[in-house]
Amino acid sequence: MSENYKFTQNRECEYFPCHKGADPETFNCLFCYCPLYMLKDECGGNFSINHGIKDCSGCTKPHVGESYDFVMSKIKLVIERGSDF
What we know:
Blueprint: E1 48-50, E2 53-55, H1 67-82
Antiparallel strand pairs: 1-2
């Protein structure tokens, strides 16, 4: 069974790849806007806080390797937290 749905690229995007140091050959654009952002410190990514705002520019977690499986493993938590807002 094909799993092509887990990976996509947009090499024509003016920001591609949008994270410095990322390998353009394996960079996954599927989660261009990370669905885990709202999880704050529970997202599992490499983020920092700058002037009180979560900065994900140093995080490639949703863009490399098994990013689809990682993000999907946290979606239930995103859904649960969504009802808190």
